[in-house]
Amino acid sequence: MLILNLLHLKFPLLYDICYENYKGLTKNPRWLLMRKIARFNLVRSVIKYLASLKNKPYKFYVSESQTLFPDVNSDLVVDHLKKDGFYFGINLPREIVEEIVSFAYSNPCYIHRKPKLGFYYHQKNLAESYYGNKLTLAGYFNTSVLCPAINQLQNDPILLAIAAKYLEQEPVHIANLLWWSFTSDGTTSQEKKRTFQMFHYDVDDYRFLKFFFYLTDVDLYSGPHICIRGSHKKKKLSHLLLPKSKTDDEILSYYGSESLVTLCGQAGFGFAEDTFCFHKGKTPIIRDRLMLQIEFGTTDYGMQHDLREPSLLQLMSSNK
Ligand SMILES: O=C(O)CCC(=O)C(=O)O
Question: Residue 6: what pLDDT?
């Protein structure tokens, strides 16, 4: 562990690689294997074929009265996802937005999701002086247990139907992430990487899908999510062999500026995305952004959930 901490300071990129291997080998080697090979199309196709032999066709029943999205047409969403890699217009009802926002104000969030670095959002300035640095990202734990609206979303029949049709099998819930991206007037590329603000693609399973919901109003200056249309189906060999974050220039020179899609919307604006697409958040300048992500895959490796033993969670003020 000491070696890892030293690497983190001196060689952040090497640290990321070592940390992922350490985590995978000690917690779930099957997850680690998936992380190494799932970016290759041939592997994804073989795994999909093998799964189709094993799994019975998945039947789902969508009860309109139980969904928060009665107007969303799951077939249309899936058509767009397959073609473009994303679909927007899966918007939250106002009372759900209010419930999640009020949860975020009344529960501690944790700097870079470190269980010992908790603080309440209204104490952000105080937290910055404890931490000794400007904050860039903080996330919540145990969201589905503590916030009924989030629990309802991860079980919503329309979201599950979209995931089932897109993944072509019964979806498995693999993660929730509720987090603040804080305003900044200039972050280093290393910090941008840690806050998902450089172009990257996710390898969370052989097939997976995320739903995102803005919980604050998002315009061009308050942290819009940006994705590259169609990039889930098209990557250069070097993108596959070297899956590190890419600069805007590297991405735009290959995909062209016409492929770049910037998603702005009011609190409640929601979209589905296969984040095997290149994507990033833009650093917010004028307003902190609160965002929820609900993720489904085909296997739960148990590596991404936000569930933590409450006794391990600490407020920063109790550490000093
Ligand atoms: O902050 C954002 O909009 C990007 C989020 C992201 O990269 C992810 O959830 O994989």
Answer: 65
Instruction: Please tell me whether residue 111 adopts helix, strand or coil conformation.
Output: strand
CA distance 200 to 250: 11
Q: In testing the pocket of ligand 1, which one of 225, 246, 287 has its CB within 8 Å of the most ligand atoms?
A: 225
Positions of E strands within the chain: 86-88, 109-111, 118-119, 137-139, 172-181, 208-214, 225-228, 260-263, 270-273, 279-281, 289-297
Domains defined along the chain, listed by start: 65-319 (2.60.120.620)
Order across the sheet with 137-139: list the strands: 86-88, 270-273, 208-214, 289-297, 172-181, 137-139, 109-111, 118-119
All residue ranges of the chain with pLDDT < 70 are 1-10, 12-13, 60-64, 319-320
Residue 261 corresponds to which tokens in the numbers above?
């899609």
Q: Any idea what the Cα angle at residue 235 is, between residues 232 and 237, rounded to 5°?
A: 145
The pLDDT, as a whole number, for residue 189 is 84
Q: Name the token pair of 53.
A: 């032999």
Would you state the pLDDT for residue 188? 85
Q: Is the CB of 204 under 6 A from ligand 1?
A: no
Question: Does the predicted TM-score (pTM) go above 0.90?
Answer: yes
Q: CA 308 to CA 52: how far, in whole Å? A: 34
State which of 219, 231, 275 you would mutate to test the pocket of ligand 1, scoring each by most atoms of that ligand within 8 A of its C-beta.
275
Quote the CA–CA distance of 10 and 279 in Å, as a whole number: 27
